[in-house]
Structures are given as structure tokens and as C-alpha cells.
Amino acid sequence: MLLTAKDRELLALLSENARMPVVTLAGQLRLSRTTVQARLERLERAGVIAGYSVRLSEEYSSSLIRAHILVTIAPKTMAQVMSALEKLREVTALHSVSGSFDLIAIISAPSIAELDRLVETIRVIEGVERTLSSIILATHISR
What is the number of alpha carbons within 13 Å of residue 52 lying toward its C-beta? Predict the structure, then answer.
């Protein structure tokens, strides 16, 4: 789907606040409310907008310990490992990557002890050959 500049502006506004009323979106985009509503429905139907979610406060997020877990997997076990990682609620994102590692899992835990438990859980997944963990100390840009 080809997005217009106004579509991209609309998506940017929604990424800042997905609960922004359509009338407010319309005012900021300098479009009518019905035009914005129609754009939203078109973007949803086309699958550009897959859903709306909660963005956690900085105060709450900063209380979590987050880490990148780089994972090397055995040949032909990608689907199995990804399925196991998907079941772990603490895995907030999972990326396939190039290089010496196959996956990067972004995880969040309320404590170092929980983070350690989670890393060990990942290490023992059948098909995982090795992991390398990096705790995120600070986030300077988050969009």
C-alpha cells in the first residue's frame, strides 16, 4: 500500500498517543474528521494499522530491567526456537539478524534475579546453541 504524507503524519500522531480523539487528529492534520476517520479505516483494512496498544510510562519502564539476548541456534531449528521464545511474555521483541547470531530477543524483567532466570530459560530451549546478554542501561531515543 502506498502511503501519502498525511497517512504518515497520522501514523506518527497515533504512535505518540493511540487514544487521541479523531477530532484532535483532524485538527492537527488540518483535515476533516470524516476524512481522518476514513483514512484510519483504510489503514486498518489494509493492515497498516494492526492494532492499538498501551505505551508504558517512563517511570514504570525505568523500573524494569531490559536486555538484548543474542541467540545462536542450531541448523533447522529456527521455527521451534521462535515458537518457544514467543511463549515467554517477558520477550517484548524478537528479531532475525545477520552475522554470527541468528536472533536478538529484547526482554524485560522486574529484577536481576528474574532476568537471570529468563536468560537461563532461553539457554535451555532445544535448538539454542549459545547466547550473549547485554543489559540496557539507558534509552536515549524511543519512538
Answer: 12
In whole angstroms, what is the distance from residue 34 CA to residue 113 CA? 51
Query: Which strands make up the sheet holding 103-109, listed edge to edge?
Result: 91-96, 103-109, 65-73, 128-135
Q: What is the pLDDT of residues 53-93, one digit of tens each?
A: 887 787 887 789 999 999 999 999 999 999 999 999 999 99
Give the global pTM. 0.68
Between strands 128-135 and 103-109, the pairing is unpaired
Q: What are the cell numbers at 46? A: 489494509
Residues 6+ apart with CB under 8 A from 72: 100, 101, 102, 128, 129, 130, 131
Per-residue burial over 89-113, b = 16 or more CB atoms within 10 Å of its CB, e = otherwise: ebbeebeeeeeebbbbbebbbeeee
